[in-house]
Amino acid sequence: MKLTADLDEVVKALNDNQVVAFPTETSYGFLGNATKQVVIQKILDIKGRSFDNPLSVLVRDEEQAQKLVDFDSRTQGLFDHFLPGPLTIIARTQKEIRGVSKNGTLALRISSKPEIDSIFKEIDFPLTATSANLSGKKDLYSHDEVVRTYKTRAFKPDLVYQGGEVEERKPSTIVDVSQQKMKLVRQGEIDFTEIQRIDR
Fold first, then answer.
1. Which end of the chain is more exposed for a tag (fewer CB within 10 A), N or C?
2. Are 198 and 78 in contact (CB under 8 A)?
3. Local structure of residue 154 (DSSP, 8 states)
4. C-alpha distances in Å from residue 175, one per residue of 54, 124, 146, 148, 168
5. Closest Cα partner for 165 from 5, 70, 27?
């Protein structure tokens, strides 16, 4: 488990199929190539999480999202109004990815964090977007907390980005648009009633 403050080193690690603990808008998360089974397995091992609880995905932009999930007018509207931002959309997947998709669906969002946007300019694959906590434990809000949590564990991230402390805030709102009626999965920073207005 190595520490770095260099974004170029983060990009290299991701291209080498490594797992990076990185600050997101809401807490520290694990970034990795979301299309590689070896990376997905590594993250699940680190978190102590099963394949039955799939990882969500960060995409660079709408174009990359369209290669992963079905895009209808409702999905388009949510992207146009709320992304980048704290909204995760569960949609019908175009391709099953074990550990990421489940029952024909996949959860994705676009980060509003400039550093993640910078990373996406250097890579050509979607990233995992799961939180960096151990499964069932509290979220981690600094690189020091990540190091303390994993330093004595058998499975740990390959790289920890020294991004300081993340201000604690509500997680992303999660909505499921894979069925005819949109469903709220988790109420987060964006109020569901605001999202429902787009669906009318």
1. C
2. yes
3. S
4. 15, 26, 28, 33, 22
5. 27
- Rounded to whole angstroms, the Cα distance separating 140 from 148 reads 10
Whose CA is closest to 180, among 67, 71, 65, 74? 74
Could you tell me if 115 and 10 are in contact, meaning their C-beta atoms sit under 8 angstroms apart? no
Residue 25: domain span: 2-198
Amino acid at 7: L
**How deeply is 164 buried, as exposed, middle or buried, from its count of CB atoms within 10 A (0-12, 13-18, 19+)?**
exposed
Q: In the structure encoding, which two tokens stand for residue 41, read together?
A: 């397995």
Dig out the tokens for 136 from the structure. 């069932």
Cβ-contact 34, 100 below 8 angstroms: yes
Number of domains in the chain: 1
Other beta carbons within 10 Å of 16: 10
Give the ranges where the chain is alpha helix by DSSP (H). Answer: 7-15, 37-47, 62-66, 73-82, 114-120, 143-150, 192-198
Three-class DSSP category at 178 = coil
Which CATH number do you get for residue 75? 3.90.870.10
Summarize pLDDT for 40-99 with one digit per residue, the tens.
999 999 999 988 889 999 999 999 999 999 998 899 999 999 999 999 999 999 988 889
